[in-house]
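Review this chain:
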Amino acid sequence: MTAEAAIPPSSNATMPRGHAHARLSATDWEHGALDMIAELGVAGLAIEALARRLGVTKGSFYWHFKNRESLLSAALQRWESDDTHELERHIGAVGDNPRERLGALFRWVSGEIQPHRVYAALLQALDHPLVKPMMMRVSQRRMDLLEVAFRQAGLAAEHAGHRARLTYAAYVGFLQLNVALELPHLSHEQYDAYVEHVIEALVPD
């Protein structure tokens, strides 16, 4: 049940100014925070600016969160949870052929633009005490899941671990090139061709 559904309609008539929290849930604030991080980085997350984006007062924020750090912590936890859920779902979602699943996984990941933007922004904030531990967990979990997928595709355990790290390094490196140097400049067609090349190079025959 949302906060809006939990409050009788008549209560709005006597609701004091600053109680716009009836319209937004904590989840709304978390998603809004992640959008702002994707655009402006962790340092750019600001309560007043986010409230304006969401069309509410700061009073709505304090209904759900104590301060900026508590919002950042909740947003990072949501991003980590969603990332894990989506990755696990897609690794086992496509067919019975492990190689086809890997190819489908790579194509899905390549099309998820907003998570890339959030991840790239977080890579630039590893000095933040909330960010680095979460990024270490996410990265290790991703590599663990990739290693399992490569083992299912026929690689021996040691080689699967190496291939998982190589795959993840290619992903992080590509993001870093885009963030730090704004390279490479690829058209949609070139990007799709790059993804297919990565699949051909990394997915076992």
